[in-house]
Amino acid sequence: MSVQVHNIRKTFGHYTALADVSLAVKSGKLTALLGPSGSGKTTLLRIIAGLEYADPGSGQIQFHGEDVTNVPAGKRKVGFVFQHYALFRHMTVFANIAFGLRVRRHNRPPQAEITDRVHKLLKLVQLENLAERFPHQLSGGQRQRIALARALAVEPKVLLLDEPFGALDAKVRKELRRWLRQFHEGIHLTTLFVTHDQEEALEIADEVVVMNQAKIEQVGSPQEVYDRPATPFVYEFLGNVNVLQAKSLANSGTPSSLSALQAGGHIYVRPHDIEVVPHETGAPGIPAVLRYIHAAGPQARLTLEQVENRATVDAEISRAELVRLDLRINSLVLLRPRQIRCFAEDYAI
Amino acid sequence: MLLARTQRSVLPGFGLSLGFTLAYLGLIVLVPLAAAFLKTAGMSWPDFWAVASSPRVVASFKVSFGISLFAALVNAVFGLILAWVLVRYSFPGRRLVDGLVDLPFALPTAVAGIALTAIYAQNGWVGQWLDPLWARGIQRLSNLIPWVNWPEFLGVKLAFDRPGIFIALTFIGLPFVVRTLQPVLNELEPELEEVAATLGANRWQTMTRVVFPELMPALITGFALAFARAVGEYGSVVFIAGNMPMHSEITPLLIITKLEQYDYQGATAIAVVMLVASFVLLLCINLLQKWSRRYYRF
Description:
The complex is a heterodimer.
Chain A: E1 3-12, E2 15-25, E3 30-34, H1 41-49, E4 60-63, E5 66-67, E6 78-81, H2 93-102, H3 111-124, H4 140-153, E7 158-162, H5 170-187, E8 190-195, H6 198-204, E9 207-212, E10 215-220, H7 222-227, H8 232-237, E11 242-245, H9 246-251, E12 266-269, E13 274-278, E14 286-294, E15 299-306, E16 312-318, H10 319-325, E17 332-337, E18 341-343
Parallel strand pairs in A: 3-8, 3-9, 6-7, 7-8
Antiparallel strand pairs in A: 1-2, 1-4, 4-5, 9-10, 11-12, 12-18, 13-17, 14-15, 14-17, 15-16
Chain B: H1 14-41, H2 45-52, H3 55-88, H4 94-101, H5 103-106, H6 109-120, H7 127-144, H8 150-154, H9 162-187, H10 190-198, H11 203-232, H12 235-240, H13 251-260, H14 264-292
């Protein structure tokens, strides 16, 4: 089921959490709401879930074209998973998952069917043998999967996850997000998850919604938002980036479309899009001094300082390249950006 | 005993602090209690039994423990509501109400007793309206269910009768329930209620199945404290109870009466029975509490 958000505004006192946000979430896709803390992403998710209401007089939330703006959370058929699991600790895993079925007033399934469904869900999240455990006896990753199973028990039309991996340690986090990706392939439920981790969003989402300061900056596939960021914010938020003065690039005599640059703008270049060549007088490129080499890892990360204005630039080159160039600390080199993006001066971040 | 720690601990001062704790507890709690037992030990067993099982003493036990239990139960219910309101809602004067809760702690019990008596007496502010109502209610109840002696059981007046004891014991026990519940309510994750809502539970189901089990351990603690305090309460009760032997005489008063008659052994005998009974009851409550938090890891 698709989710449409039309002009939703939410303020807490004088603080604007969402400023007329509109968004269309595609049916059956895994969509990431990505942004720094305070960008409004969790508020948006909570409004979609019905845990919070948008300001009166602002827009609508629609599920599959149907207005649910004033429908209470329990009737929206959404599954919600919290960062800290929010499992009922006085209930067994089984009772936790069965909760949504047992509280039904109308068409509550018979006990045998509830048992059957809970066991199916436990199988789905690969924790079949934990039915009689209590939440405190489980690991973080297991708890989160139980929370997911509990949300799925009521057969939601939309699954909403609020920083689902935020409370887990790095290794479990990676495993679990791969697992979620595969899991989603299997069920194809419209899923929206909030994260501040760009790597996480880019790795598993079909579509990424980048948010900042109560607004949506860009919506697109992971590749789209990474390769063609719409705003300087998206550029900086998704991966490392160097911000260079357009002037220094123009002065360097580097070829390509540089003549087209407005002199006052800023150039955005990813570190791996910078070519490092030995210094040669008269050759094109921005002269810089090598200050530091981080050679641990698959790529060598270089920290350089521009000769012209002493601004720092990061570059990434392969280790073979590093050996070939025979670079030393304080050697003078030339930097040639391969792929750049220019934003006008007033587009301040 | 495995009290001695052979391993070095990063937390220093274990020996000193434990020694201090034991000495302090011994001096303040254990020695006086032991003295009561010692004094009683001077009595022969039949003498002891004669005192402890005399009708007047047994009646006072029933009054003290029965009404204390009932008052603590009522406090558990209304204390929960009060704590809920104070934690969950913000309204003008909330701080003031919050402060008022502590008043029964701070007020000298005699003052509380006199004040309550003045208010609930037949010519008091509240008593002049409620007292006739109570009397009439008891009358109706007696007509409806004649095989129970209602006037004896529930009293016919508010002040100077059993209801007075109940009023005083409720008054002094309330802060215990409210103050033990407040921090737990504060810590209660709103996510639990939110997740229940998204799963389709209505408000009542969320309260009974999610919130209440979370509060249960604290509620039992508050109940136990209120109960223990009520059993031992003397000052506020004696003014309002009427102190009729066999009917509205509490055990602590009986102990004082015996002391005034220089019957020290008799007084300590009653005290020992009371101590043991309180201890057993509190033990039961603690077991109940342990059971109620069997799912929680600490």
